[in-house]
Amino acid sequence: MIRFDSVSKSYSGNTRPALNAVSLEILKGEFVFLVGASGSGKSSFLRLVLKEEKPSKGQIHVLGQYLNTLPNRKIPPFRRNLGVVFQDFRLLPQKTVYDNVAFTLQVIGKSKGFIQEAVPDTLKMVGLAGKANRFPHELSGGEQQRVAIARAIVNKPAILLADEPTGNLDPQTSAGIMTLLERINLGGTTVIMATHDAGIVDQMKRRVIELISGQVVRDENQGGYQTQAIPVQGFGFGANGGASA
Amino acid sequence: MRFGLVISEAAQGLRRNISMVISVILVTFISLTFVGAAILLQMQIGQMKDYWYDRAQVAVYLCTDTDSGGNCAQEEATEDQIAAVKAQLDSTTLKPYIRKYVFETHDQAYEIFKTQFKGNPIASFTTPDMLNESFRVNLNNTDEAGILVDKLQGLAGVQDVADQRAYLNPIFAVLNAASLTAVGLAALMLVAAVLLIATTIRLSAFSRRRELGIMRLVGASNRFIQTPFILEGVFAALIGSVLAGGATVAIVQFFVKGYLGDTLGASTTLIGLSEAWIVVPILILIGAVLAAISAGAAINRYLKV
Predict the structure, then answer these.
(1) Which residues of chain B from 276 to 305 reach within 8 Å of chain A, CB to CB?
(2) Does the pLDDT at position A123 exceed 60?
């Protein structure tokens, strides 16, 4: 589904690469946490998956497409298979909840009929059935993030990328968001979530990929935010997950 | 692609950016009016050339008793000399170039002179024999007057061979200079218009950068993202072009036909509304194409990965 082969990414004017020889594979239906300090390369990783950036070295395959040579005009159709959620929601303030979600479908040319069916369904799924006509500023942070998630999944993407989706939310609201993401994952969507929220990672016990200075230092299934063991590169260790944060 | 959505996006952009849109309209209006004026002037020159060159003759002036210029020695051209010139005109070398020629006698020249200089004191002491006899030659192609000059200039009894087009050329040179000035001004203004359109579109894109970001993220096609902005630029430029077209028609109607027509009377031909209506679609096309190109180039920056 997603495969990185010794991918490096350097930005001009910065000697240290944002990603350094990262190789990993994420399979269909996985739920993956991407952890690491700020500047460790989590966002660069997500941007590379989205083909918002080109790798400096290495090969990237996403959804059967070889991204290195994907021509510009094929990027839009490729992105229709990906949903993205951000820490700052990025909703359109002058559009209602319904219109924010419908906008995604309108701009990729879906029919009116399809939109009228898909948007209410999705809003119901994220728990905003009664708030279709509200504006973003009338909603709480958690609700705004639900709108953003609805927007990301309304087109039924194969992969959902979430860049610190709970970064602006209190723990209780975050838990609600996580439940929602888990439900989306159960529906077959691969979810990749970059986060600093140790509590969530520890609680969910999913695959954890830890980046330090652009390198994968840990990749364990059912891992925690921090491992108790000495960081080991590879799979399978720390089956009980990390402990404290 | 959903057409209605694209149109409403473009309309929204126009409304948000109204002051810039108005300046685009004005600048395209002025610049294209200059373009229109330049084209009209060229058409006018073309028409005058057709009219006057058609009437321009090559005059072969023959010697009189008083002439000492050319091949003359203050002696009237003899019958033989006149016949020699006539023979040249009828010869196989010159005949193909000549449409027709007439011989103008002293008396005919005097008649024409009298009407041209009516009321001028010079007319009272000019006598017929002071005026040159001449062959008036109409050529098939007035550009070939040089051949006639070469052939006849050296003949005995010929005072001068004059290509009347030479008298017209300064007038056309002045008109041409005016038209080039208009083209130069138009080019400068068009550069300003193109840059202004690009700036307007960039501003419009900036004010909608959130939408643009989301459109790109969810996979809207580049064309879908571009089209509203291009329409916005083209729409503003089109209004300017239509105004410029209107101004061009008005110039022809009120200045050329009205003022010049009354002042110059029937002395020359002037362009009319039919020429103006040829210019209008040219202006609209120039406006639309330039706007589309500059808006497209401006928005392209926002689409780069």
Answers:
(1) 305
(2) yes
